Amino acid sequence: MKEGRGKPMRRAIEEIHQFLGDDSISTDGEDLKAHGCSEWSSTKIGRLPVAAVFTKSTDEVSSIAKVCHNCKVPMIPFSSGSSVEGHFYARGGISIDFMEMNKIVAFHPEDMDVVVQPSVSWMGLNDQIKDSGLLPVDPGPPAKVGGMIATNCSGTNAVRYGTMKDWLINMTAVLADGKIIKTRKDHAGYNLNGLFTGSEGTLGIITEVTLKLAPIPEVTGVAVDVIYRIGGTSREWKKSPTLFFKSSGTKAGVTDNIVCVRKIVYQNGSDDFEVERDAEKQHALWAARKEAFWSMLCLRKSGSEVWSTDIAVPLSKVPDLVEVSKQDLGNLGLFGSMLRHIGDGNFHESIL
């Protein structure tokens, strides 16, 4: 800790310790490392947080923010730490951990909305409300709601359901000075929901949100065009570029979509086209896409790292980007995988 920053930082830690207690703040090296870096991020800051604070409520977050504001100490929220771009790096400040703010506060199936704390996972939420509704945004499996809003995440369902901003009704947030605000866009006033969504923690700390839910589709169909081998799934795959399709809605609508997609892919030289309607078999197919990144991690040799990228381009430019990226990998002698939720032009490249 630099001398110029040492006194205010120590003062902030002492004040937070006084009102939160021994179990709510840590300066342990392993805790700081877990809150300051990840094995899959290509962003390397080189400065761990000075302390990790574990909070349980909006009021506690407000008190922490007031202390940090008065002491001029940087702070950054942390939930699952799944970001590949380093959003959660505290750069020597205080990391506010929301691990214990993981509750579903209220579920209103008649209104098709749910109130949750920021560390609720989207997969866990959907599992708990699976008989009544669905949060259709589907980023990486570890993602939590707070981070999903802060980054305006999308995912493989983005073409049909949009991104996180489309499912936010209101939120409770704590500003840098500790002030608590509630947002809701109606016919008057600024759209603060839209302002906070995608702001990556720079405007405030999200502590509670109300989300819209989608009806559960009558039918879901998963199709795969051209198969490749990938680790981490329950089956063996051919080595070829692969497109994954998901269609949901009415039985007639899904059937029409599959017929249309099958015709298009065969017209464009597909080697194979596989469709599954059984839920377990659908999961096995879709797992190849969802678990591909973790398969890359398993391929690492001792001393090597995985660098991950996340960019978006116009749809018409995606094929060019794929070819250029493949050429660059080959010219540099690097091994990498390419994953896309291609419907919105998003592209991930994981490089060993």
TrEMBL record:
The keyword Flavoprotein applies. Its cofactor is FAD. Keywords: FAD, Flavoprotein, Oxidoreductase. GO terms for biological process: lactate catabolic process. Signal peptide: none annotated. One of its GO terms (cellular component) is mitochondrion. Pfam families: FAD-oxidase_C (PF02913), FAD_binding_4 (PF01565). One of its GO terms (molecular function) is D-lactate dehydrogenase (NAD+) activity. The keyword Flavoprotein applies. Residues 45-216 form the FAD-binding PCMH-type domain. It comes from the Eukaryota. This is FAD-binding PCMH-type domain-containing protein. It comes from Aspergillus leporis.
